[in-house]
Amino acid sequence: MIIFNRLDEIKNIENTVVALGNFDGVHKGHQALIARTVKTAEAANLKSAVFTFSNHPKNVNCGELIVKNILYFDEKAKIIENLGVDYLFNIPFDEQIRQMKPIDFIDHVLIGKFNMKQAYCGFNYKFGYKAEGTPEVLMHEGIQKGFGIHVLEPFQIDGNLVSSTFIRNLIAEGRVDQCMKYMGRNYAIGGEVVVGNKIGRTIGFPTSNLIIDESMVTPPNGVYVTYCTYNGKRYPSVTNVGVKPTIGNYKKNVETHIFNFNKELYGKTIRVEFLEKTRDERKFASVEELSKQITSDCIMAKDYHRRTR
User: Fold this and answer.
1) CA distance 258 to 204
2) Looking at residue 12, which CATH number applies to its domain?
3) C-alpha span between 99 and 60 (Å, rounded)
4) Among 110, 188, 212, 267, which one is most buried in terms of CB atoms within 10 A?
């Protein structure tokens, strides 16, 4: 898959079938739309493409971070590539794009840059200045300008409309056990392990600490059954998200204890998958009481891993 990060990088590419949308979660609804795009492109001997913005339009319009990411870009790109896509247009939503009228967007970007012959989009897709562009606009222009538009109906699972907003709410509410059903994978965050207060090591539970990435949606404070991936290997683990109120006054972070693991991870990159929340974070009367609770948390997490292996 070829990735284009700016419009001016796109020159004289082959004719395409384009999936249109933000694809910020690449959830099962997105995957279905992209799969249809790829299948149509193959049947028509065209290139398949996904068009998305590298930043969320709502954040640009509001001037602040109001929509947080569900996926890191490298993960997003890998999922899209695995669906068989030829081109990924990962374009910044800048002032030029923001001011572009829907018809100009179609003419200069979709046709002029992407050589779009067909497109797939969701029923609620919006584009162009003040989000005035709709699937109906695309269909009308397609008749005039010779491209086809396929508008997909709402994608539902168990009566729930699958959307990135819905998934963000699941994560923010701690219902991480539901993410696999709607995304096709566990919710995960990653980063470089930083030096913590090393209290866990002194009470028999050494942990790997990640600083919260403010651009990512994160679950509420509490204890979670997790997997931790390091150097390509996935280890059962238990994770506390929070501020460690028993120990002192700390910023929110992600603190993971990996079972049967004794490697030093400071400065290394890990990825933590969240499987289920087991309890809220709370302040204990003493470190000894905290240690007893952590022992209980570990027993519960190990049992979960054993049952679901």
Assistant:
1) 12
2) 3.40.50.620
3) 12
4) 110
Separation of alpha carbons 23 and 71, rounded Å: 10
> Residue 248 has which token pair?
């002192």
Query: Residue 153 sits in which domain range?
Result: 2-161
Mean pLDDT by 10 residues, the chain (309 residues): 95 96 93 97 98 83 77 94 98 91 96 97 92 94 96 94 95 96 95 70 72 88 96 94 79 90 87 96 85 91 91
- Using only C-alpha atoms, the chain has a radius of gyration, in whole angstroms, of 22
The pTM of the full predicted model, rounded to 2 decimals, is 0.90
Residues 7 and 146 in one domain: yes
Residue 254 is predicted with a pLDDT of: 92
Does residue 24 sit in the same domain as residue 133? yes
pLDDT of residue 262: 82
**For residues 250 and 229, what is the distance between their CA atoms, to the nearest angstrom?**
25
Question: In this structure, are residues 255 and 208 in contact, taking their beta carbons and an 8 Å threshold?
Answer: yes
CA separation for the pair 291, 88 (Å, rounded): 48
Cα 112 to chain centroid, rounded: 30
Q: How far apart are CA 46 and CA 158, in angstroms?
A: 35
